[in-house]
């Protein structure tokens, strides 16, 4: 199964607009219980936000929300 991040990247590459896609990430909590927050932005506008125990999981959730915002 293709990841949401890959699907989102492929979508924007197909539109020749991959330069508009960006990510911001931050973490909170003690080192043994970090929570990651990742935002998916398109042209600077937040299209999805994921919060999870791992950065990868938070990024996947942010990408999933962005895909939903684009009708997928």
Automatic annotation (TrEMBL):
PROSITE patterns named among the record's database cross-references: DS_RBD (PS50137)
Any Pfam family hit: dsrm
GO terms, molecular function: RNA binding
Domain DRBM: 3-72
This protein's name: DRBM domain-containing protein
InterPro entries: dsRBD_dom (IPR014720)
Assigned keywords, A-Z: RNA-binding
Leader sequence residues: none
Taxonomic placement: Eukaryota, Fungi, Dikarya, Basidiomycota, Agaricomycotina
């Amino acid at each position: 199964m293709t990841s949401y991040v890959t699907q989102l990247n492929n979508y924007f590459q197909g539109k020749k607009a991959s330069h508009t896609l960006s990510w911001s990430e931050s973490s909170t909590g003690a080192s043994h219980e970090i929570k990651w927050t990742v935002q998916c932005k398109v042209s600077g506008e937040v299209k999805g936000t994921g919060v999870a125990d791992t950065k990868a999981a938070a990024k996947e959730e942010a990408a999933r929300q962005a895909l939903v915002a684009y009708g997928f």
